[in-house]
């Protein structure tokens, strides 16, 4: 195994595990809107926002916390009226009933308009706020909490925008030669620093790093249990978690590991997509992925009676595998995160079940061989159904791995080298599904206009 920098792994975990209240795409718009008002120094009379097609796709049908409404217009309006930009993706933590009423009126009076910009970074949000002679502009790019441009009355206050050239695409995803040249993957971060990742190095780090240096991962990800519990206690979205529990109670489903993992994970997505006011610990910019990779591992540990150290190391393993897989593709793509996060959860569960490095690799191979191709057609209540599908597949993948069963290079895009399989998955998500992403958005927009 090649050497890796342990501090780099700690740094990337701290950078990518971020609390976010509500779906990250509309919440990022709320954050940009709150910042635009802050820069303007007063309540704007009119707001015009532009977003990438991917932001539009993920913001059209999802509940906005505390508002009882869905969509980007209300997300931008509540950010303007009651958002606290200092809290970034928890921007709506302190909104009031009066804030919600004012934001709803703002939407009703069409004082906020949403447009789309094409041929830009998949994560792009621009908010222009105006009041009389004063105006402000705020742009988020590349990451959901990454404000790169601030302007007031024509004066540029901040400009860290990406250059519009061929380097823009490669800054976030560079997978062309990974499968052929190396079993390692690299993440190009804001500093331009390259991180060397492989399943083997992640496993080594997760299993052998001193526990006290990993405890922050436990503290961060365990909070996803709270939003899962909320989804089990109240009716959010399609109530998938509660429906599973109902059918356990009436004897149609067993109260086993599979049902427990599905109900707890789906309930978290139910609550988050339904506008719950609790934050989720996101991973790689997605709260649903944070839930999908962590809640199954926590649920599995509860079923097995695993101790805190074992759970902590399993959560570190799952979190880093997710970051690794996502580093091979764009943060927003046509590939559903339930698949990538499910693969990560499968690794964590395999470790809890006593699996070794090879069996962790088998878990990834099995998930890639099974669920590659499940599409992301926007954030919405039925994401809970996809989460249920992803985590049920994760359980099967883990149990098969524990029986030393793995998909092989004779099967589809799977390679005998797990790191090459991950690179192959990245190619499909980053390039092969690009036209599919456009087609889905066209269908969704056309459906909304009819």
UniProtKB/TrEMBL annotation:
One Gene Ontology term of the molecular function aspect: L-cysteine desulfhydrase activity
InterPro entries: Ser_deHydtase-like_asu, UPF0597
Pfam families: SDH_alpha
GO biological process terms on file: L-cysteine catabolic process to pyruvate
Domain Serine dehydratase-like alpha subunit residues, every copy: 88-441
Membrane-spanning residues: none
Superkingdom: Bacteria
Chain intervals for the UniProt region annotation (Disordered): 167-187
Biased composition (Basic and acidic residues): 167-181
Family statement: Belongs to the UPF0597 family.
HAMAP family, per database record: UPF0597 (MF_01845)
Name used for this protein in its record: UPF0597 protein CLOST_2371
Gene source species: Acetoanaerobium sticklandii (strain ATCC 12662 / DSM 519 / JCM 1433 / CCUG 9281 / NCIMB 10654 / HF) (Clostridium sticklandii)
């Amino acid at each position: 195994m090649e050497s890796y920098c342990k501090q780099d792994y700690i740094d990337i975990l701290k950078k990518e595990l971020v609390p976010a209240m509500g779906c990250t795409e509309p919440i990022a718009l709320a954050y940009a809107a709150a910042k635009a008002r802050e820069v303007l120094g007063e309540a704007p009379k009119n707001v015009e926002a532009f977003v990438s097609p991917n932001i539009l796709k993920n913001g059209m049908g999802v509940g906005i916390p505390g508002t009882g409404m869905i969509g980007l217009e209300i997300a931008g309006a509540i950010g303007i009226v009651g958002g606290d930009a200092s809290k970034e993706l928890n921007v709506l933590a302190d909104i009031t009933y009066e804030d919600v009423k004012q934001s709803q009126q703002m939407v009703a009076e069409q004082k906020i308009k949403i447009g789309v910009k094409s041929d830009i970074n998949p994560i792009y949000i621009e908010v222009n706020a105006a009041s009389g002679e004063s105006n402000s502009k705020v742009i988020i790019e590349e990451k959901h909490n990454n404000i790169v441009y601030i302007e007031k009355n024509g004066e540029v206050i901040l400009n860290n925008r990406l250059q519009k050239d061929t380097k823009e695409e490669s800054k976030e995803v560079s997978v062309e030669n990974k499968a052929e040249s190396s079993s390692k993957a690299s993440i190009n971060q804001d500093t331009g620093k390259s991180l060397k990742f492989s399943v083997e190095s992640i496993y080594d780090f997760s299993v052998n790093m001193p526990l006290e240096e990993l405890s922050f991962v436990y503290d961060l990800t365990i909070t996803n249990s709270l939003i899962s519990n909320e989804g089990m206690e109240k009716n959010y979205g399609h109530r998938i978690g509660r429906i599973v529990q109902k059918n356990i109670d009436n004897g149609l489903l067993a109260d086993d590991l599979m049902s427990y993992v599905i109900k707890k994970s789906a309930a978290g997505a139910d609550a988050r997509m339904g506008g719950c006011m609790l934050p989720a610990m996101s991973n790689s910019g997605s709260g649903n992925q944070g839930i999908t990779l962590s809640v199954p591992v926590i649920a599995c540990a509860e079923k097995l009676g695993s101790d805190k150290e074992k759970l902590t190391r399993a959560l570190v393993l799952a979190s880093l595998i997710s970051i690794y897989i996502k580093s091979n593709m764009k943060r927003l793509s046509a590939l559903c995160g339930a698949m990538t996060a499910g693969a990560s959860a499968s690794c964590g569960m395999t470790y809890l079940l006593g699996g070794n490095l090879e069996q962790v690799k088998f878990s990834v191979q099995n998930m890639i061989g099974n669920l590659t191709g499940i599409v992301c057609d926007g954030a919405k209540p039925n994401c809970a159904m996809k989460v249920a599908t992803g985590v049920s597949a994760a359980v099967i993948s883990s149990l098969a791995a524990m029986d030393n069963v793995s998909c092989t290079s004779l099967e589809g895009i799977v390679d005998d080298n797990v790191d090459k399989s991950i690179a192959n998955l990245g190619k499909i998500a980053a390039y092969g599904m690009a036209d599919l992403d456009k087609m889905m958005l066209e269908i969704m927009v056309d459906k909304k206009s009819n």
